[in-house]
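anyone seen this seq b4? input:
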Amino acid sequence: MSTVGRISPRLRLKDNHPTAVKIAKLCDLADELGITLSFYGQRVVVEDRERDKELPPLYLEDIEDDHWFEEFPFTTEYKLVYDNPEYIAQQKKEQEERDRVRAEEARIAKERAEAKVKTENERRAREQEERERRLLAELKEKYEK
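predicted toks r here
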């Protein structure tokens, strides 16, 4: 077997390396401050352990809306933003109205379908009754002769 297959593609930096020490200090400071930054593609979520959990989440965005962060510390100006509770309430109200309208439309459609089935059943019953009356009339005429 070749030794090339056993060579690791990555090597670990020793804990006492100056860069590793700096990163550890940065992580310790973030932990001490209770801050966590989570990178999700174009969005950075900022979590603060001391912040009320009932408040909407904080997002870190570039000042310019068409840019996003790909590195830390950030090389561009940033802003901390959160979802506007009034906007969320408005969206919820609009969704509830759409749901109410959909439910009403579904109820009306169900009632129409049930009415159609009932009408069809009544029509079939009338036809069946008419067939039975004709048959009885034919039988009565046949036996009266």
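The chain is about 50% helix and 15% strand. The chain has two domains: 12-83, 84-145. kinda curious what u guys think
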